[in-house]
Amino acid sequence: MADVKYQKAVEKLEEIIAKIENETIDVDELSVKVKEAVDLIKVCKSKIEKAELEVKKVVESLEIAGD
After folding, report:
1. Residue 23 has pLDDT above 90, yes or no
2. Residue 64, phi then psi, degrees to nearest 5
3. CA dist 14 to 8, 10, 35, 55, 67, Å?
4. Which of 1, 7, 47, 55 is deepest in the core (most CB within 10 A)?
5. Contacts of 41 (CB under 8 A, 6+ apart)
């Protein structure tokens, strides 16, 4: 699931949340969807953390180059 794009992960999470909120999800499917949502949240968190590190490196390189 790590190869899922951030936007697609967010869209899938929104679908799962909508199904749960609208009670259109079968009880038998609920645990599967909750696990899927947790996995998607982990993917999103990882991608955000990676982007933060990359931005920090760029900013630091600009600071060094500006000296």
Report:
1. no
2. -65, -45
3. 10, 6, 14, 27, 45
4. 47
5. 13
pLDDT, one tens digit per residue, over 36-65 is 999 999 999 999 999 999 999 999 888 887
Which has more confidence, 66 or 38? 38
Q: Which amino acid is at 7?
A: Q
How far is residue 32 from each of residues 14, 16, 29, 47, 58, measured CA to CA in Å? 15, 10, 5, 23, 39
Token pair of 40, please?
């998607």
DSSP state of 4: S
pTM of the shown model? 0.78
- Return d(Cα 40, Cα 6) in angstroms, integer: 9
Q: Which amino acid is at 13?
A: L
